Amino acid sequence: MAPAERAEELRRSIAYHRKRYYVDDDPDISDAEYDALERQLREIEHKHPKLVTPDSPTLRVGGEPSERFESYTHRRPLLSLDNAYGAEELDEWHARLLRVLDDVRPDLVVEPKVDGLSISIHYENGLLVRGVTRGDGRVGEDVTANVRTIRSIPLRLTESVSHMEVRGEVFMPRGSFRELNRRRDEAGEPPFANPRNAAAGAVRLLDPKITASRRLDCFFYELAAIEGREMPGRHHQGLDLMRDLGLRTNPLNEVGDLDFVKRVFEQVAERRATLDYEIDGVVVKVDQLALRDVAGATSKFPRWAVAMKYPAQQATTLVKAIQVQVGRTGKLTPVAELEPVGLAGTTVSRATLHNEDEVARKDVRVGDTVLIEKAGEIIPQVIKVITARRRRGSRRFRMPERCPVCDSDAVREEGEVARYCTNVACPAQLKEKLLHFVFRSGMDIQGLGEALVDQLLAKEMVRDAADLYHLQREPLAELPRMGEKSAANLLQQIDASRSRPLERLIFALGIRHVGQRAAATLARELRSIDRLGQAEADELEALDEIGPKIAAAVGLFFGQPANVELVRRLKEAGLSMQPSAEPRVASTNAVFSGKIVVLTGTLPGTSRGEARALIESRGGRVAASVSRKTDLVVAGESAGSKLAKARELGIEVIDAETFARITQDE
Fold first, then answer.
1. 244 and 109 share a domain?
2. How many Å apart are CA 448 and CA 450, to the nearest integer?
C-alpha cells in the first residue's frame, strides 16, 4: 500500500477508535494498540512530511511555543450563568422565566456543572480550525494549538459539515491532577490548589507540548451554530447530533420538569465523589431553542439558563493541633484539629492528613493557616499550607514510632505509605470495628456510643461484634452511668438489630472498600452471606458497580478464618441475614419489571421526567447510556446516537406510541 493511502487509512482508524473511547465509552482496542496506530502514522509522516494533514492526530503534541495569543471576537457572546443556591432560589429563577414566557412551561435540561474552563471550538468542512477561550464573553483568546493537544476533542468530525461552532468545558480529571501535583512536588514546585486552576493554566500556556503533558479532557455542552445541516429545535437533540459527529458530551444530562431538576440535583450530589472530575453544581437550561429566543438575556446572563450551585467546597482555617488516630485495621492516621469553619454546608473542625508522607510533603504544622477541601470526603482534607502566614518558630510534625493507644511498635513496611500498629488486640482497633458495626448505616444499635464501647472493652465484656448479642442485663446495669433502664433499652436495641437486612450486615462487617452502595449491590445480587463468602472474583466483578478492588477485598475478608468464624457466630446469635425485599411496584402494571431502560429523543406529550417516573413505577430502572446491560430503548422523535448504538447491539427498541400504550394502567 502506498504511504499516502496507508496514512489516510490510519487517520480514519484513529478517528474511529478515538470516538469509540471518548464518545461511545466502548473501546474496541487497548490503549497500547491505539498508541501503536499513532506511532505508525507518525513514522510515515516523518519519512514523508508532505503527507501531514491539518487534522492529523500526530499534531496534537507538537508545534512551536506561541509568543502571544491572538484575540478573537465570538460570533455570539459566550455568556456566563447566573447562580441559584438552593431550591428556593431555583424557584425564583423559574418564576421569572415563566413571566417572560407568558406562563409557557418549557422542558428543562439538567447536567453536571463541570468546574473547568469554557471553550469555543470551530469546525470548517469537518476539520478543527479554531479554539477560543471565553475571555470577557465577547472577545476571547485563540488557543487553537493547545486545544489540538486534548485527545477528547476531535480534529476531524465523523461527517463533513460546512461550518459548526460548539461550546464545551475543558477540565483536568482528578487522576491527572494528582499526578501533576506529584510531579511538581518532586520538582520542588508548588502544587496547584485545585483541578480548575490547573486546567485554566494549561490551556493558556505558550508551549503546546506542556499543555499536552497535563492530560486535559473536555465535555461539549452546546451546539452554538451549524451550517450545511438543519439546526435541531431542542437542546438535547443538539447534544445527540454532537455525539453523532464524534463530540463527547456529558452522559448525565437529563430532560424533565422543575421537580425533576431538583431530584437530579440531589442525585448528582450523591454521585459527586465518584466522578473523575470536579463539579460545583448543575446547569439548568430551557430545552426548546425557540423559547430561549423569547426569554433572551440580560447584559450578563441568559434568562433561559441558571447554575444551581452546591455549597462551597474549600475554606481556610487554623491548625490547632495534630492528633494521630488508630483505625480498625491498625492504620495510624494523622488528623488536623482545626479552628471550626463552615464548609459545604457543615461546620468542619477536623481534616485528614492521610499519612506521614503527605504531612511531610505539605509540611503541615501546628499553628499553620491551611486551605481545606471537602470533595466527597466525610472528613475534609488539607490542600495546601498558606506559608506566608506561618508563625515563626513552628516545628515540623513527626509521626510516632509507637502506637498512641497501646504503646506497641508502629511499623511502616516497605512499599507502604502508612504505619500500622503491630498489636492485633489493640483496643483502638477493636473499638473502631465495634463502632463501625453499630453505626446507623450498619446494624443501627442506638445507645452504644464511644464511651460505652470503651467500658465494654475495658471490662472485657466483648471481644468482637458477635459478643454484643450475648450481653446480660445485670452486668450492663452495673456499668457507670447505665442503670437498669438504660441496660434494658440497649438490649432491646441489640435484639432489634438481629432483623436488619443483609446489606446492612455486609456494610457493618467493615470489609475494606465496601461502602453502602456496594453492600446493597452484593446483597441484592447474591442474596446470601454464604454465597458472598464463596463467590469468585470474576463473579463479583460481573455485578453492576463492583470492580476488581472491591472483589479482591471481599475475597481477602472471607479468606481470613477469624472473619469466617465471626460470621458463623453472628448466625448462631440469630441475625436474619436476609436481603431487603424487592421494592414493590407502585403501579399494577409491571411491564418493565427488572429491566434497564434508556430514553432517547422526544416523547410527544410526555417530559423526560414523567417518562422516567412511568418506567420506575412499573418496575424498571432508567440508565443514561446504552450498553450491553441495556434491556430496552424507548426512542422518541429525533432520536440520536443512543438509538444507533441500540440497533448495533441488537437491543429491543420501541417507539413513543408503543411506550404510551404499554404504560397505561388497566
1. yes
2. 7
On the question of pLDDT at 282 being above 50, the answer is yes
Residue entry with cell 464518545: 23
Instruction: Tell the residue number behind the cell numbers 482496542, with chain if given.
Output: 29
* Residue 274: partners with Cβ closer than 8 Å, 6 or more residues away: 376
In this structure, are 604 and 554 located in the same domain? no
Give 106-144 as a 3 state SS string: CCEEEEEEECCEEEEEEEECCEEEEEEECCCCCEEEECH
- Of 119, 120, 127, 126, the closest CA to residue 228 belongs to 126
Please indicate, yes or no, whether residues 331 and 410 belong to a single structural domain of this protein: yes
Residues marked as catalytic: 113
Query: What's the CA gap between 413 and 420, in Å, rounded?
Result: 9
6-15, 86-95, 255-264: lowest mean pLDDT where? 6-15
The enclosing domain of 225 has a CATH number of: 3.30.470.30
Q: CA distances (Å), 652 to each of 323, 630, 635, in order?
A: 58, 9, 10
CATH number of the CATH domain containing 19: 1.10.287.610
Domain of residue 390 covers 314-421
CATH number of residue 552's parent domain: 1.10.150.20
Kindly state whether residue 590 falls inside one of the protein's structural domains.
no
Measured N-to-C along each axis, helices 450-458 and 427-438 cross at an angle, to the nearest 10 degrees, of 130
- 114 beta partners: 279
State the pTM of this model: 0.48
Phi, psi of 372 (to 5 degrees): -115, 155
CB-based contacts of 301: which residues, under 8 Å, 6+ apart? 79, 80, 81, 82
Query: Strand 369-373 relative to strand 381-385: parallel, antiparallel, unpaired?
Result: antiparallel
Query: What total number of domains does the chain contain?
Result: 6
